[in-house]
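2024-03-11 09:14:02 INFO receiving multi-entity request
2024-03-11 09:14:02 INFO entity count = three
2024-03-11 09:14:03 INFO echoing inputs for audit
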Amino acid sequence: MEIMLAALVGILVAAGAYLMMSGKLLPYLFGLVLLSNAANLVLFASGRLTYAEPPLVPVGEYAPVGEVSNALPQALILTAIVIGFGLLSFALSLVFRAYFELKTTRMDEMREAEPLPKVEKAKARPVAGPEGSV
Amino acid sequence: MLLVWPIAIPLFTAILCLLAFRSFEAQRVLNLAGSLALLAASVVLVARVLDEGPIAAQMGSWPAPFGITLVADILSAAMVLITGIIAVACAIYGLAEVSRTDERSGHHALTQALLGGVCGAFVTGDIFNMYVWFEVMLIASFGLLVVSGGKAALDGAVKYVGLNLIATLAFLAGVGLLYGASGTLNMADLHLTLQGRHDETAVYAAAALLMFAFGTKAAMFPAFFWLPAAYHTPSVTTSALFSALLTKVGVYALIRVFTLVFDTTEPAIQNTLLYGAALTMVVGVLGAAAQMHVRRILSFHIISQIGYMILGLAIYTPLGLVGAIFYLFHHIIVKANLFLIAGVIRKSTGSEDLYVIGGLWKRKPWLGVLFLIPALSLAGIPPLSGFWAKLLIIIASLEEERYFIAFVAVAVGLLTVFSMIKIWMEAFWKAHPAGDDAAATPAPALLYIPIISLAAMTVFIGLYAAPFVDAALESADQVLNPQAYIAAVTAASEAAAEALDLGPQEAIPTLVEPIEAPTVPEEQLNGLEAEGEAE
Amino acid sequence: MNSVILSTATRFLTPLILIISIFVLLRGHNEPGGGFIGGLLGAIAFALIEKARGVAEARRAMRFDPLSIAGFGLACCLFGGLWGAAVYGDFLRGVWPLYDEYGLPVGSILLFDIGVYLAVVGTVCAILFSLEDAGHDVAGRED
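2024-03-11 09:21:47 INFO inference complete, emitting structure
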């Protein structure tokens, strides 16, 4: 089973990387989602896959009875999913804002923070105004 | 409890700022008060650690390796202290600099949340917990970047967010592999469990992923592009805070993990760090030479300076680490100061574009002196603090007979002088294109308080370097020989197990025994490595 | 969205989802459930109002600013942790003041979980509402 999971992680990373190299923001974001799922699966596989019971403590006991699955990776994945959810929803709203402010989602056309040298010189001549928009 | 304060104070202040969102005055006061409280708590922590050696605590009394450990040795405690200093400096500066728009969007709450995340990453002894603090820090920094909502800020933030998220995912996958290989996430326990297993495939893979993750956070070559894209876009206060703390958390994580968990004497790891550091220095300084915008020059210089710190770690001798740790402190003070001065230049002349400003020397000579102190310190001119930092690293690399690396370090220092002189010539020395009166816009006196204080610290560290080098020496000794660190964690863990009083049938696992995943048969335990070999 | 079916259904679905979310929150004490899942369910209730009747209506239904709710939730978490520190000297240590005498599992852990619940409801709603607001802003400007 672990080998299948490893292969799945590989496929997810490959697909994610392909999407991220498209040069557009939205596919980049989808690529990040796939990568994030791949990372979570790595965490999941690191706890080993078993057919055991869920790790719940019965009433009156101090520890789970019998064979149970490893609870720690599940807790880690839950944390990672929560954090990933927050980060990706932030990234989505950022992309959304950026699209309407900059009128593009192509990364090559987003030169607002780092203008090309030619643009910079053209900007340098008129003295007034701290940040002239191009 | 001492270890909890550096995390609890900023987070509590952040919450109060959130709840007081209607009153900007209250938020400013809270921000300053929270930063001062953080500084006080960190001073107590440093005093205690210098006095007693590393201290540790288990959260909620859950014994290690299951519970979360907070642990502070000299390196962690000193990093928390410097975070407190920068927090206070930026809070004072921010009183006069941060715009209403930023404050309305939650500048103060986000700043404090950022500080909480940074301090959490410094004091945690658990690698997954470190991931969580990195995320707290990251999401707060995302927020701080976009609070102004300008076009450039959004553009920079997109690149910052996009590249940092990849690093985050690499961090997570690396932690997963590490857990799969060792069954533990406590860094002290990892040190014991991984002893003699450093050539296993899974450990190598985890090391590679974590090096990429921390390297990206630290803006190491080749994963530094997020930094120059974003650092000059927010308010100057935020820029200074970022420049001082964010990349340094990455460097701290590299130093911590690549001494405690992984074995940096492995040639693959050491060479990657070494040549990565050299390329980082060169690329950063050349990038700075091509810029004509004050904060963008300084942003590229962060990258080149990060190279020195990683170089100190990569040499992996006691002297090298002393250099790296000393460099870390010197750099935080100096770089934050330079960004703050860039803010005053902007206020005085109306721009940071070196083509269109000038004439500051005639109108504000004192600002020129205040600029020269950190600028020359950054370049490594004696007797300022940067000289000692660079000297230690170069001596360490010469002792290891890495002559080429030492040459690169010296050459990069010279190029740093070139960039600093460029700012000096263009902003201060040459006449203002629109007449010198254009450079005379008065800046609020409040802005000068943190600048003067930080400059005084640079001069002080430069002139009385011995005690600081001694502290760095002791700290490097603790980092390279982590017995005291591990003993502190073990003691805290045992105390916690006693306090928790689990049922009689519950055997408390000790740190020294490698912990196995509960239900896994022996032959599956090395499944991950087997997969790696099968490929 | 302008659907009579949706806005009528929202009227009784919202309280139902909120009750289930609180049930899940409390169930989390010893069984699957807890603050995060409960919080997501709670956020769904407000998301439903937002979809059916618009952001303004959803904000009114929440009564408080979503970020204030999140801040209050974080404060609950922090105090849940500090409670253990005050009683036993260990941050985040569980305290059960009513358990021995009355058998009620009410204490610092529950406070922490309620804090998580509020923080999740607040944050998710804040993100959702601001996304919706941004969409309307931009749509308004485009026209």
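2024-03-11 09:21:48 INFO post-check: The CA atoms of residues 80 and 108 of chain C lie 5 Å apart.
2024-03-11 09:21:48 INFO post-check: Chain C touches chain A at residues 30-31, 36, 123, 127, 130-131, 134-135, 138, 141 (CB under 8 Å).
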